[in-house]
Amino acid sequence: MRILVFIALSTLAVSLKAQGTAGQPGAPIDDSQARPPVSKADIEIVKRARKILSSPSKWNRADKRICPADAKTFSLYCALEKATDEVSGKFEHRGAAMQEARFVIDEIASNRNYDHRLMDYNNDPKTTFADVQKVFVLLEERIATRLKTGNSQAQPAATQTAAVQPAAAPSVAAGGGDPPATPPVTKADLEIVKRAREILDSPAKWNRADTQVCPPDAKTVSLFCALQMAAKEVAGTFDNSGATIQEARLVAVEIGPNGSQYHARLTDFNNDPATTFADIQKLFNLVEQHVAKRLSDKPARGK
């Protein structure tokens, strides 16, 4: 009888201990929507990850989320893992940079329904190397925005999109940073980039010393001013955080000779001594391709 009572009490104790552990605030929970506080180290992690995965030849397109220390190629996931190890010395699967990267993918590939966002986006045949670089650019901007606005505490999942993509992005002066959001594209955005290319169609028309001041009677135009003039002609107004100009900023970082160092991206790309007129035309072509792709990826409505 004593043995039976002892076994019963022991079983009850183990059960109560297990229940207590599960209910404790510190119990390990894999929350896919967790949003830890960000720090300046997270900015360095993203910059380092972009350097690790800096060319198509370094890209592992078949990610399994296994990241050997001696790997020669890297997936998006592994580039972030390696960068985290190098910057902070401690990698966490749900760390701030990793989670913000997942939220970027939620935003730019919202209709793809991935099970494992970083791995599945990396391995998706639709994903290009330019898309991977775009993730890094948007990721850095999201973290910088949270740091700047003091938005470093975790938020409910329902407010995440609003926190990253505010309804009214602030205007940007010539020397300031750029708005973080990439708004939805329309057919007008295609016309804007086409018109900008027509405005800036020869080296003789290129202003190599951009100040983001665009007189209507100017004889030469910078990249920024060509896009501004085109937007006014096509849409009747210029939005400094509009879809076309935001795509142009992303491309400038992607192809710019010193893209990782640009602050005011269009101005710095335009004025970079290493930028050629062919680079300007390449930017227009890539922006048009990006806008066209985003339009084709839009889910049909009303069907």
- Low-pLDDT stretches are 1-28, 152-181
Please tell me how large the radius of gyration is.
24 Å
In percent, how helical is the residue content? Answer: 40-55%
Give helix and strand order, one letter per element, not per position. HHHHHHHHHHHH
Share of β-strand residues: under 5%
Mean residue pLDDT: 78
Shape: elongated
Cα separation of the termini: 72 Å
How many β-strand stretches? 0
What is the count of structural domains?
A: 2
Specify the biggest β-sheet: none
What is the number of helices? 12
Q: What structural class do you assign from the helix and strand content?
A: mainly alpha
Q: Can you describe what's shown?
A:
This protein has helices at 2-23, 40-52, 76-88, 96-108, 117-123, 129-148, 160-164, 187-199, 223-235, 243-255, 265-271, 277-297. It is mainly α and 303 residues long. It has 2 domains: 40-164, no CATH class; 187-297, no CATH class. α2 packs across α3 (76-88), α6 packs across α10 (243-255) and α8 (187-199) crosses α9 (223-235). The radius of gyration is 24 Å and the shape is elongated. Mean pLDDT is 78; it is low at 1-28 and 152-181.
